[in-house]
Amino acid sequence: MKIKTIDLPSIGRRYDFTTESGNSFVLIDYFSGYKEIYFLRNGETIGTIKLNEDESDQLAIILSGVFLKDFLEKRIDVIFRNIAIETVKIEENFKSINKTIEEIKFRTLTQTYIIAIIRNEISIVMPQPSEKVLKDDVLVLLGSIENIEKAKVYLKNLSFL
Question: What does pTM read for this prediction?
Fold first, then answer.
């Protein structure tokens, strides 16, 4: 991919991207935190997307996660291919709300670890068994791909059904 960078005084920075396949798009990174993406065909704009700071951060996380996952899958020994880290947001209908990690016997029953809880933009790294699961928490799970999928169901229903 070719990337051309242009400073936009008092505005931000412009990035012009051209992929190997010839696709083009422009990213305007405003000092305000907003981002605009312009999709081009033959030099003409065919579509745009405007992202606020939170939306662009979420997109960056997804894109970097995909890159990291691809990178790791290509380079890590076969033994580690089944290890995954994934997040799950605790929604109001989850039966695990207001219960401690220990109460729901999370690790024992799911064979999955909660390695962090993101709560109100604060990270609780390696939460204690006495930590409660609260509505809108984002749990960062570590385990096998299969066990993480089961753990998501378990957090919602407190059963594997």
Answer: 0.52
